Amino acid sequence: MDQQDNDSQIMAELALLESDAQPLDGARAVARGVARLFLRHDILVLSEVSLRNRRRADLMGIDAKGQIVIVEIKVARGDLLGDSKWTEYLDYCDRFYWAVPADFDHSPLDRPEFLPERAGLVVADAYDAEIIRPAATHSLASARRKTETLRIARRAMGRLAIANDWIDPSLHDHG
């Protein structure tokens, strides 16, 4: 199966899931818009991925070159300004993005404490997204990349097995 067929199959599966879905808002809407944007950039993501440092990435994905991307979604100004632990994600990705809804004042993300020279910015709604500022690449060490890639793959397979009703979710920690 070539890449175009694979992308078409993924989009068809997304459409099927959306047909039964409830309306999206807030972080879920932003996550879907980012996932659609990233798919066009050949980055596939999982939501709510636990990291070894006890943090949980809102979205974590892998691009076609094997680079790991983490996205932190913020839909409330207070949540953004009160988040002092977000830098703990940086040790687990090559590229880091903030994602916010279209009507969100993202000017605080230009402040030095939010590392605008490193952190990218995506503005999204439930249907699409746009990269406002690309994320700088800070390559992970090979050993860390391998570990995280295997963890993402195993987590994705576990979630798929549960979705297909192959395994009992209570018997699998799929993150």
Describe this structure in words.
- It is a single chain.
- It is built from four helices and six strands.
- The chain has 175 residues and is an alpha/beta fold.
- It has a six-stranded mixed beta sheet with strand order 1-2-3-4-5-6.
- Strand 1 and strand 2 form a beta hairpin.
- The radius of gyration is 16 Å and the shape is globular.
- The model has no long low-confidence stretch (mean pLDDT 89).
Secondary-structure blueprint:
Blueprint lengths: L2 H17 L6 H15 L2 E8 L5 E8 L4 E6 L3 H5 L13 E7 L18 E5 L4 E5 L8 H22 L12
Parallel strand pairs: 3-4, 4-5
Antiparallel strand pairs: 1-2, 2-3, 5-6
What's the short version?
By secondary structure, the protein is an alpha/beta fold. The chain has 4 helices and 6 strands; from the N terminus they run ααβββαβββα. The protein has a 6-stranded mixed sheet with strand order 1-2-3-4-5-6.
| Class computed from helices, strands and strand pairing | alpha/beta
CATH class of the domain at 25-139: Alpha Beta
CATH topology of the domain at 25-139: the name is Trna Endonuclease, Chain: A, domain 1
- CATH architecture descriptor text of the domain at 25-139: 3-Layer(aba) Sandwich
Strand order of the largest sheet: 1-2-3-4-5-6
DSSP helical segment count: 4
Residue share in helices?
A: 25-40%
Number of strands: 6
Query: What is the radius of gyration?
Result: 16 Å
Q: Please describe the biggest sheet, giving its number of strands, its sense, and whether it closes into a barrel.
A: 6 strands, mixed
Basic shape: globular
- Termini separation comes to 29 Å
Percentage of β-strand residues: 15-25%
Order of helices and strands: HHEEEHEEEH
Kindly state the mean pLDDT as a whole number?
Answer: 89
pLDDT below 50 for ≥5 consecutive residues: which ranges? Answer: none
Protein name: DNA repair protein MmcB-related protein
Pfam families: MmcB-like (PF06319)
InterPro entries: MmcB-like (IPR009394), tRNA_endonuc-like_dom_sf (IPR011856)
Organism: Parasphingorhabdus marina DSM 22363
